[in-house]
Structures are given as C-alpha cells and as structure tokens.
Amino acid sequence: MNVFVIGAHGHVGHTTALKLVNKGNHVMAGVRNESEFTSLPKSKLITPIKFDLTKSIQDMTRIFKDNHVDAVIFSAGAGGGVSPETTLKVDLDGAVKSIKAAKNAGITRYLMVSAAGSDNRKVWNTKFGNFPMYTYYLSKHYADLYLHNSGLNYTILHPVALSNHAETNKIQLNPKDLTKASVSRADVANVLVETLSNPKTYKKDYTFSSGPVSITKAF
C-alpha cells in the first residue's frame, strides 16, 4: 500500500514508518518542516514530504492525489508546552482538514492515533506534569467525532499513557484503570501496522494498554 503517515517525525510515526516498509509498504512520511527530513528512516520505500497541518484542505488534497495515497495514518500532535490555540490548530483543525482532504482525494482508509480519555469529560481537567490537558482532550474528542461521521473506513486508537519502554507486541484492550496503565510507543506502532489492512477493525475504536495478549491475537 501507499501509506501517508502524518507526523512521521514523532516517535510513534517514525517507528510506524519503519515497520510499514518492513512489510513492503511504500510510506510517504509527512513532516512539518523540510529540516526534519534528515531525521526520518532511510529507505527506498520512504518518501519524505513536507506536510503542514496549518495549510489548506486543497493543499493537503493535492499532496494525497499526487502521491496516489491508499491510506492515511494521523500520528501528529502539537506537543506539550504550547498554547491552547496551537493545540486546536494541529490536533483538531489539522486533523479535520486531513480527513476532508482524504475524502476529496478518494481515500477510504484512515487511522487516527487519539488518546485514552478523549471520550470521557471527567478526565479532561487533568494535568500532565504542569501542563493542563483540557484543550488536548477536547481537540482529540472532536477530531474523533468528525472522523466517526466522515464515512471513511476509520480505526481510532486510544492508547493510555505512552512510554519509551521496549516493545512487547502484547496489549490489553479496554484496561480497567486508565490512570495507572501505560503502553510503549513502539507497541502503538505495532497496533497501527496490525490494524491497517484488517477490515475487522474498520469503523471501530480501541482503548488499550500494555498487557498479556499478543497484538495479532487481539485483532
């Protein structure tokens, strides 16, 4: 497949790109700045592309069409320590624009990396260190909602707190305590690769943490 990874510069996106090419896919690695091209994995199957989520839907549509994209993976984020306005521009408006662009380009498969708790307003007022999470969760919630109603064959992933631990290739779907659970970024990438071509995961949401079940068996 020709897979466009939005946010390929981030840890999850970077790892996902590597795992996708190892499966024989061609990855268009979308990053905000051309200066980030040098940090991307080196492979004949990875094409670096400047992709700015603050640009227009028309610009995004053109990029998708020009690269004959079959599927889009959204793994971008404004990151911590930025203004609420920036979070809204990237995590909400940027995501929605990319969904609209995918539809305009005739793409039907779209995977979203969201967050555990995005559908639960009770957790929106929590903090990550000193960083308020309200705008982040709000952005994820409404981007997810837009994707639900888009008509695309979506899969939305809601990983719990991310860690840099080594991958285990094992997860727990619907963990009971979201506040104490974690999952490695590498295993989020493994879930993306596992679900990409699996029709059973179309139009479904999955909340998960690290756990005892192999990712292949879980899906």
Task: Please outline what is shown here.
This protein has 219 residues and is α/β, with parallel strands linked by helices. The chain is built from six helices and 13 strands.
Task: Kindly describe this structure.
By secondary structure, this protein is an alpha/beta fold. It has helices spanning 11-22, 57-66, 84-104, 134-148, 185-196, 215-218, and strands at 2-6, 26-31, 46-50, 71-74, 109-113, 127-128, 131-132, 153-159, 161-163, 170-173, 182-184, 204-210, 213-214. The protein has a single domain, classed as NAD(P)-binding Rossmann-like Domain (Rossmann fold), CATH 3.40.50. The strands form three sheets. Strands 3-2-1-4-5-8-12-10-13 form a nine-stranded mixed sheet, sandwiched between helices. Strands 6-7 form a two-stranded antiparallel ribbon. Strand 1, helix 1 (11-22) and strand 2 form a beta-alpha-beta unit. The model has no long low-confidence stretch (mean pLDDT 95). This is NAD(P)-dependent oxidoreductase. Pfam families: NAD_binding_10. Residues 7-199 form the NAD(P)-binding domain.
